[in-house]
């Protein structure tokens, strides 16, 4: 649907038209992203057991790393043809095909996606309920993307929470029709002009 799995640019015309129709009907949008629930490799599973997503990164990858630094960790593979201008998109080792790390030309790593088995230090992972999310992060709030569709689309399946121990970062959670987390990201708290992530409304 988008050129950046969890971004907000380049919606296909047909997809945008569908969202506009749904917005007019006041429906709930639970299919605005792809879930990160696909199978992972043994190496990726081992990383998920050893590390948590946050507060500063995942495994050896940390927010702010350059492309060279992040690649040197062995946890990512750069996608030569993917990304926005000024933004390098890399796939995490063993992840689902859509899982990605976004690396800004000006600010380094600005987004790290999760995958099956990965948890935050507070115990939230894919499959957690919305109630679990609210208990772990009392300050979590629904996140809208009012700029999509010229301000006509409001999506309520995105949630954003501060990252304990790192005020410069935020968690973004996506939930499915059953109010279960099916994708989550660690992002920079401030908007990034290169990769267009970390925004808040």
UniProtKB/TrEMBL annotation:
Keywords: Signal. Residues 1-26 form the signal peptide. This is Lipoprotein.
């Amino acid at each position: 649907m988008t050129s950046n799995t969890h971004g907000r640019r380049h919606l296909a015309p047909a997809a945008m038209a569908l969202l506009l129709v749904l917005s007019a009907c006041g429906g709930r949008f639970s299919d605005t992203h792809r879930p990160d629930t696909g199978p992972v490799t043994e190496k990726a599973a081992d990383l998920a057991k050893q590390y948590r997503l946050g507060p500063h990164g995942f495994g050896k990858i940390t927010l702010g790393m350059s492309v060279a630094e992040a690649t040197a960790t062995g946890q990512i593979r750069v996608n030569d043809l993917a990304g926005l201008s000024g933004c390098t998109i890399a796939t995490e080792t063993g992840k689902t095909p859509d899982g990605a790390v976004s690396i800004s030309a000006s600010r380094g790593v600005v987004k790290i996606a999760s995958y099956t088995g990965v948890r935050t230090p507070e115990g939230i992972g894919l499959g957690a309920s919305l109630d679990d999310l609210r208990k772990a992060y009392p300050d979590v709030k629904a996140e809208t993307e009012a700029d999509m569709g010229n301000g006509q689309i409001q999506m309520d399946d995105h949630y954003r929470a501060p990252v304990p121990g790192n005020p410069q970062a935020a968690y973004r959670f996506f939930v499915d029709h059953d109010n279960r987390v099916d994708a989550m990201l660690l992002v920079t708290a401030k908007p990034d002009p290169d990769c267009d992530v970390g925004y808040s409304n």
